Amino acid sequence: MINYFDVAIIVRDEMIQIMGISRGYQPLSFSQNRNHLLQFLPSSQDELPVRSMQDSFEDAIIPLSTDFDLQDKYITYLGYIRLGRIMEDMDFFAVWCAFKYLFNPKQPENEPTPYVIVTALVDEIQFTRVTPKPNKDLRISGKVTWSGKTSIEVTVWLEQNIEGFWQRITYAIFILVCRNSTNTGPAFVNKLVPKDERETEIYQRSQARVLRRKSVKIDHLINKQPTFDEQTLIHDLFIRTIDTTNPLLGRRILPPNCIWLEETTMVTNIFCHPEDRNFYNKIFGGFLMRQALELGWLTAYYHSKHRPLLRYISDISFKQPVNVGSLLRLNGQVVFTEQNFIQVVVHAEVYDPITSKTINTNSFHYTFQANNVVANVMPYSYHEAMMYIDGKRHFQQAIHNSD
Questions:
Q1: Are residues 243 and 355 in the same domain?
Q2: Domain end position, chosen among 169, 184, 217
Q3: How far apart are CA 185 and CA 268, in angstroms?
Q4: Could you tell me the pTM of the whole model?
Q5: CA dihedral defined by 265, 271, 272, 273, rounded to 10 degrees?
Q6: How does pLDDT run across 154-180, given as a tens digit for each residue?
């Protein structure tokens, strides 16, 4: 086991070398001098040797107990750990495990890697009730737990040494997509073959998640109308907001202990500097995850009036890359509440101030828990009702997976 920040420095330096890219930011330079690497990619998955989970395993220590400068980067104003910073580390570590997993005999030793790896989504992130301390060492570990033809799943764990014992804080499941050397098309990856009963069990759970994601996509509200029970709920919510003294006027009223869903929005704008880029001159996914999580937490904090705890991240999707120089707009909104739970969605958009056009690039779904019963959110329009139903679905998934 090694110091994580030694690993981070070594890995970044090594990645620059193995990918054959130059140090320093050079606009539009990534694809230059990488076209010839296309010839080293396999034409089918069968050309690659099979791999095991252990081939990709890596772990490292984040030395918070001894590195005081590091503590300043991780600590919150209340003396806790910034979970957004943790998510950024875990995303970087997942990519490192993925590169360790890939083995391509067609690649000459003196040539850069013909692979590009990007984060497609984060399937689920569960948090235990262990409260991480800013002055205790963290242990991060991960390995590939499933592979398709051009994508792989990496599970990353985070633990903290509390009173001499490593206690689990969270784990995250990353789905990474492998692209060719110029990032213009997919690239085949090694097949993963479980070596024992334990690995077989892990692999089967991963396959079940693949099927669940396909099912969720088919049943999404964009593709299929709400269920009968959901339509009944929408109607009940609507009736609760009608002025019964004169319903023909169409006047809408807010029930007690409720707030209109549209009034829970928080927005932040970020100019994307080269400092936050990945190796492909796009904004690093971990940076987006950190910014979105911190806005999501603020949105829940503002709504509950108390410091909320992050319990679950049910879905993070990376739909479009974010270019360096983009104006990134993050929109956080409470979309569902139940007792002391708050479901927040954060949408990331790239905004062009000249054309006034926006492109949705990412969506983040968070489940927070407050120490008090919070005000219920009430949709006003049908569009908001769909947001409410989608939030309810994510909340139910979080509760189900946490049981």
A1: yes
A2: 217
A3: 33
A4: 0.81
A5: -150
A6: 999 999 988 888 999 888 899 999 998
Residue 136's contacts (CB-CB under 8 Å, 6 or more residues apart) are 64, 65, 160, 161, 162
- DSSP annotation of 219: T
Token pair listed for 386: 């769909």
Round to whole Å and give the CA distance between 250 and 234.
17
**Cα 324 from chain centre:** 20
Do 132 and 191 touch, CB atoms closer than 8 A?
no
Residue type, 313: I
Spatial CA neighbour of 88 closest among 395, 294, 272 = 294
Give 343's pLDDT tier (boundaries 50, 70, 90): very high
- Determine the Cα–Cα distance for residues 21 and 107; give it in Å rounded to an integer: 17
Q: What is the pLDDT of residue 20?
A: 61
The DSSP string of 75-132 is B-TTSSB-HHHHHHHHHHHHHHHHHHH---TTS-TTS----EEEEEEEEEEEE-S---
Domain identity same for 312 and 348: yes
pLDDT in tens, 86-129: 888 888 889 889 988 999 998 888 878 888 888 888 887 888 88
Chain-centre distance of CA 304, in angstroms? 24
Query: Are residues 380 and 286 part of one domain?
Result: yes
Type of residue at 189: V
What length is written for the chain?
A: 403
Residue 280's domain comprises: 224-402
Chain-centroid distance, C-alpha 51: 26
Helix 83-101, helix 4-19: angle, nearest 10: 50
Residue at which a domain ends, from 168, 189, 217: 217
DSSP code for 374: P
CATH number of the domain enclosing 183 = 3.10.129.10
If asked whether residues 184 and 45 sit together in one domain, one would say: yes
